[in-house]
Amino acid sequence: MKVAILGAGAFGTALACALGHAQLWARDVDHAKDMRTTRQNRRRLPGVDLPDTVTVTSDLNEVDAEILLLAMPMQQMRGFLNDNATLLASRILVACSKGFDLDLLIGPVGVIEQVLPGTRAALLTGPSFAADIARGLPTALTLAARDDALAEHLQTRLSTENLRLYRNTDVTGAELGGALKNVIAIAAGMVIGAGMGESARAALMARGYAEMQRLALSLGAEPETLAGLSGFGDLVLTCGSEKSRNFRYGMALGADAAFDATTTVEGAATARAVARLARDRGVDMPISRMVAAVLDGMLTLTEAKGALLARPLTLE
């Protein structure tokens, strides 16, 4: 069964490298042409050669795979699905995005199901850096689908020697884990960028994880999912490495330094969505709320730190 990756960013390219026999679709014609010529994605993943078995196209009509991995920013997904609904409706769609749609306040599988009702949809998420996957380093991810038969089918088809997939039917939990950890990663980056120290980062990660659990459970997720790869595992990775775009973004904010505006930082949009969702559901998420306030210029980092430290003392 053929597989195609729609989106030639770093992660989409890495998946193509890991899967080997696959099509890789790039939105930009010149980008696709350059990849075909150089056999590298010099824009997003330089230094990694595409396998000879990976074909690159910019024409969506040339994509003939049954399984489509949607490796695109969360905020672009709904428009892409609407624009190409007829072409996509009969395929198996596996979202590889982490975040919430800002208008609908739902995750990537929810967006697929809302735009294309009845479509077989799944989510690929968990602790992973594109460079590691592309170079064949051991990586474990979560493959979540509401239908376990579909999850098992995709797990078998997409697992490789070095890419190990664990399946899960708790789509809500997997979506939330992947989205919420990006917000905490921005906060962790702020802590390190501002020179608050490793102890402060550890405390923030622990309390951030508690926030993630509170919101996820309020939305019907299973606690075991948040304790797995798509929750705790992804949180540890993104809060502890400068390979994480969200962490680097937070570091830049904390250090009052410049950040590459062309880099997609999913956690920034997610922070705003989470603040609204938590408020609407009455869930206490002080770290996420402070991140959103700093991003929107409502608070300085110093004010946000003071507000968090001044909260009433309580039981853990």
TrEMBL record:
Q: Which residues bind NADPH?
A: 11, 27, 98, 130, 245, 265-266
> Catalyzes what?
sn-glycerol 3-phosphate + NADP(+) = dihydroxyacetone phosphate + NADPH + H(+); sn-glycerol 3-phosphate + NAD(+) = dihydroxyacetone phosphate + NADH + H(+)
The entry marks the following residues as binding sn-glycerol 3-phosphate, namely 98, 126, 128, 181, 234, 244-246
Q: Per the UniProt entry, what is one GO biological process?
A: glycerophospholipid metabolic process
- Gene Ontology terms for molecular function: glycerol-3-phosphate dehydrogenase [NAD(P)+] activity; NAD binding
Key words, A-Z: Cytoplasm, Lipid biosynthesis, Lipid metabolism, NAD, NADP, Nucleotide-binding, Oxidoreductase, Phospholipid biosynthesis, Phospholipid metabolism
Q: Where in the cell is it found?
A: Cytoplasm
Pathway info: Membrane lipid metabolism; glycerophospholipid metabolism
Glycerol-3-phosphate dehydrogenase NAD-dependent C-terminal domain residues are 170-303
Sites binding NAD(+) sit at 7-12, 130, 245
Residue ranges constituting the Glycerol-3-phosphate dehydrogenase NAD-dependent N-terminal domain according to the UniProt record:
2-150
Q: What is its main location?
A: cytoplasm
GO CC, any one term:
cytosol
Write down the EC number. 1.1.1.94
NCBIfam families assigned = PRK00094.1-2, PRK00094.1-4
The similarity comment for this entry is: Belongs to the NAD-dependent glycerol-3-phosphate dehydrogenase family.
Q: What is the recorded name of this protein?
A: Glycerol-3-phosphate dehydrogenase [NAD(P)+]
Natural source organism: Roseibaca calidilacus
What is the phylogenetic placement of the source species in the record?
Bacteria, Pseudomonadati, Pseudomonadota, Alphaproteobacteria, Rhodobacterales
Tell me what gene encodes this.
gpsA
